[in-house]
Amino acid sequence: MKESAVGCHMLLFERGLHHVGTDYMSFLLWNEYIKFEESLNKRGRVAVILKKVLAVPIKYRSFFLKRFAWTRMTLTEAESNKFEKAEKFVQRILRFEEAIWTPYFHLSHPDESELAAWRKYLDFIETEGDFEKVILLYERCLVACANYPEFWIRYVNFLENGGRRDTAYDALERVTLIYAKREPYIHLFRARFYEKNLHFSKARAAYQLLHSEILPGHPEALVDHARFELRQGNVKEAFSLLEKAIPAGIREEQAQKVFHSLIADEYEKSTKRVAESPPSSKAKRAKLEVENGDLRSSVSDNSSVATENRVLLLN
Q1: 253-261, long-range: CB within 8 Å, 24+ apart, which pairs?
Q2: pTM higher than 0.90, yes or no?
Q3: What 8-state DSSP symbol labels residue 108?
Q4: Following DSSP, what letter does each residue of 29-63 receive, concatenated?
Q5: pLDDT one-digit tens code per residue, 196-237
Q6: Of 222, 215, 230, which Cα lies nearest the Cα of 296?
Q7: Running DSSP on this structure, what letter comes out for residue 248?
Q8: What are the tens digits of pLDDT across the range 157-195?
Q9: What percent of the chain has pLDDT over 90?
Q10: Distance CA 261, CA 235 (A)
């Protein structure tokens, strides 16, 4: 093999291991790298790679330990400490790994026991405090559980709380446009997430995509969109959306009542949030004022209607 080709292969292996080399299931990639170096008769390189392998918590560690013994090299004290630390961590995660039978995407969905294992595994890794390690596990989980919005929502919230909002947006795009694009709840979450972060045009587009193209006329999407438009002060647009969400047989009779109920409800929520915010939190107050929009001018004297009228929004 030409020297340039060898260098190219090494770079690809190193690049792959940089991204997934600490993953429990990365043993296949490590093994292929070792086999590649062995084919070039680079025993020194093989020993170096094996030392790296022993420092990460991956599957089949005993196999790599035996191969390292064949090199007749020894570990330094620092390397031995890394080895012991990795070994202890494997013992801690083994119960989760053994409960996951399908760690890859498959047309047959994971059963409830596997889903429960993923939830507990994520709980455990999050408490460890290694942010990058948590991201790796989420990305691995989302291969096997790509069609489950709960894991995507959990991932997005984790990323946002960790200051990775751009990555959170990327995850939302992936799930709504590729993996779970027919699931209404993830689209509603996406729209609410954009609004919460003051991306109003993107929030509006997310609502429109759901109730206009993906699931035309979806009632909850229309009502949520109507609430959103009310918070933006677009009363006419909100009423138009609400009319589409109410069954045709009772539309003329109940539309006005339900609409006023919706206005009163949104106004009550917004004013309560403003009242509860600290006086010094000017940015928060400004955001809530934006949410209020022009609701004050839209609440009439008879806007407090019976609770049963609000139930129509959910039927």
Answers
A1: 254/309, 254/312, 257/305, 257/309, 258/309, 258/310, 258/312, 258/313, 260/299, 260/300, 260/302, 260/303, 260/305, 261/303, 261/305, 261/309, 261/310, 261/313
A2: no
A3: S
A4: HHHHHHHHHHHTT-HHHHHHHHHHHHTS--TTHHH
A5: 999 999 999 999 999 998 888 888 888 899 889 988 988 889
A6: 230
A7: G
A8: 999 999 999 999 999 999 998 998 889 999 999 999 999
A9: 54
A10: 13
Task: Kindly give, in sequence order, each residue whose CB lies less than 8 Å from that of residue 267, ignoring residues fewer than 6 positions away.
Answer: 292, 295, 296, 298, 299
DSSP 8-state class, residue 2:
-
Torsion sign (Cα): 111, 135, 126, 18: positive
pLDDT at 251 over 60: no
Structure tokens at 92: 């801690």
Residue range 65-84, pLDDT digits in tens? 999 988 888 889 999 999 99
Nearest to 313 by CA among 235, 231, 252, 226: 226
Closest CA relative to residue 122, chosen from 111, 136, 109: 136
